[in-house]
Write a structure and sequence with these properties.
Layout (H helix, E strand, L loop, with lengths): L2 H31 L12 H25 L3 H16 L4 H29 L6 H17 L4 H14 L9 H14 L18 H39 L5
Helix pairs in contact: 1-2, 1-3, 1-8, 2-4, 2-5, 3-4, 3-8, 4-5, 4-6, 6-7, 7-8
Length: 248
């Protein structure tokens, strides 16, 4: 096999694992360091929010530092997913390009809310409780509500999986329904702007817990399937080279 092609597949495998790495590191930062997950109660008073942020200030700021290094690796995962979708469409088709563009937004959806929260945490004891509460509201509105954008990303990935007419499809058919299910459970995030309690609040069952669980399953399954797809692509390239006529 050509050396350049060998590196292509190696880079794709590394990029596939980067998706899992981003999720794992972000999970540690958000659940254990910053403690922004599970989300705080939207009905907390301004004083309660400020006290919570004072207690977690160091964790929030360190999470921002760590995420600044790790979350951009999500781009590698997005590009590799798009590259495998390109095999299905046999070129950069509408589905593939839509996945690229929506995937590019993903790191912004993680980092931008943390910028806001970090700015609030930096001088949390010098600010008024109402201002801290406002910036915390912006964080959760941006972070939880922003998830709806990913509905389009996973829908086009699911459609591409279903229309794959190859003898050996890039992704198994069941993966399409995983994507569609994720899109359905992400959709209620768009309603957090209307509720401060119940299942549609930013800490509710439908707006946070179900999407969080579904996203975890998807973010574990997708890298594994990408690794399998890369191996399949590599095998097809080897077979094509062996089948090519030798000119004497």
């Amino acid at each position: 096999m050509d050396l350049n092609k060998a590196y292509l597949y190696k880079f794709q495998r590394l990029a596939a694992w980067s998706g899992f790495l981003v999720m794992a590191v972000q999970g540690v930062c958000f659940f254990m360091l910053a403690k922004v997950q599970p989300p705080i109660d939207p009905e907390w008073s301004a004083i309660q929010v400020q006290d919570w942020m004072i207690d977690n200030r160091t964790g929030i700021l360190w999470s921002m530092v760590i995420c600044s290094f790790i979350i951009p690796l999500e781009y590698l995962f997005v590009v590799t997913t798009s590259w495998q979708m390109r095999r299905i469409e046999r070129g950069w088709g509408v589905l593939t390009m839509t996945q690229v563009l929506t995937g590019v937004v993903a790191p912004v959806g993680f980092l931008y809310p943390m910028f806001m929260l970090s700015a609030a945490a930096l001088r949390v004891e010098e600010r008024s409780p109402e201002l801290i509460q406002l910036m915390t509201d912006v964080f959760y509105y941006s972070y939880v509500g922003f998830a709806f954008v990913f509905c389009v990303q996973v829908i086009v990935l699911g459609i591409a999986t279903l229309i794959d007419s190859r003898r050996n499809p890039v992704f198994p058919r069941w993966f399409a329904y995983v994507n569609f299910f994720l899109a359905v459970v992400l959709a209620p995030g768009a309603f957090i702007y209307l509720f401060t309690s119940g299942p549609l609040a930013w800490n509710g069952l439908f707006a946070f817990w179900l999407p969080c669980l579904a996203y975890f399953v998807w973010k574990v399954a997708t890298p594994l399937l990408l690794l399998k797809a890369v191996t399949q692509e590599e095998a097809e390239a080897d077979n094509a080279e062996k089948a090519a006529p030798v000119l004497i």
